[in-house]
Amino acid sequence: MLVVTFYKFIELENLEELRDRALSFCQQQNLKGTILLASEGINATLSGEQENLDNFIHFLKQDQRFADIQPKFSESDNPPFHRMKVKIKPEIVTMGVEEINPKITTGQHIDPETWNKLITDPEVLVIDTRNEYEYKVGTFQNAISPKTDHFREFPEFVEENLDPKQHKKIAMFCTGGIRCEKASAYLKEQGFEEVYQLNGGILNYLDSISPEESLWQGECFVFDHRVAVNENLEKGNHEICYGCRHPLSPEDRKSEKYQPGVSCPYCYDQLTKEQRDRFAERWRQEQIARQRQQKHVGAEMPQQSYNF
User: Fold this and answer.
1) Which of 26, 174, 180, 220 is catalytic?
2) 66 with 16: CB under 8 angstroms?
3) Is 26 a catalytic residue?
4) Residue 294 pLDDT class (50, 70, 90 cuts)
5) What is the set of domains in the chain, with CATH numbers?
6) Nearest residue to 145 (alpha-carbon basis) of 174, 118, 114
């Protein structure tokens, strides 16, 4: 089972027609995952067999607007998605700043092969544009976190912590590159001159750089049932809390507040006894369904927001 991710900022029209065509083709190919469409472009994460994913990429590239998309592949032992969804959204990655246009200007894209040299320069401020829970799973050496819960909080972080006169060189990165497109465009709009971004994001870096040369520390959070991938782009050691959807390290799962399918150290104190009892019963029913190789028909687990 493979997982493919890609995005492109490009002006799109007739979104409903594109949505229907894409959904129909993905269903024919037995693909699962999510495609987000907006007037500003496309953002997708899909899973399936190699041939079927290749068929979809070929289908998409027949449209000249998508002829140069750069899909990134990784592996999964189990199906990471349960459904196929194609959604029309106001943005393909939500920042909430209308005047930002990555189609016009972004930071300078830096390939993985030269990224190490850049982020070890003492004059460069390295920013992880992802959310705090992603940062805690793993990040680059010397990187700082904006301590955000949602990407739309990034402009506030910039306003309160960064100054074009003080921070002359900024290098940023995210999972697949899409958040950096908007983040770097925003910084350029705010007057920051030397702005760099990791081309293809963390996933491209891990795919290109050997573990011996890598400056990546930890695992990389991904928005599917793998939770996180290691330096070989294989499923890592993190699991998800079925109570709050927070990624959990092996150390987190040793906590007395961790109960599989119910709670973890990040949500235990916010849950009532009634909620914990309800989650425990939901978990018990799901385990019975799995043992019987049946699909659990009860309430679905809370979903993490879809955001690269």
Assistant:
1) 174
2) no
3) no
4) low
5) 2-88 (3.30.70.100), 108-218 (3.40.250.10), 240-292 (no CATH)
6) 174
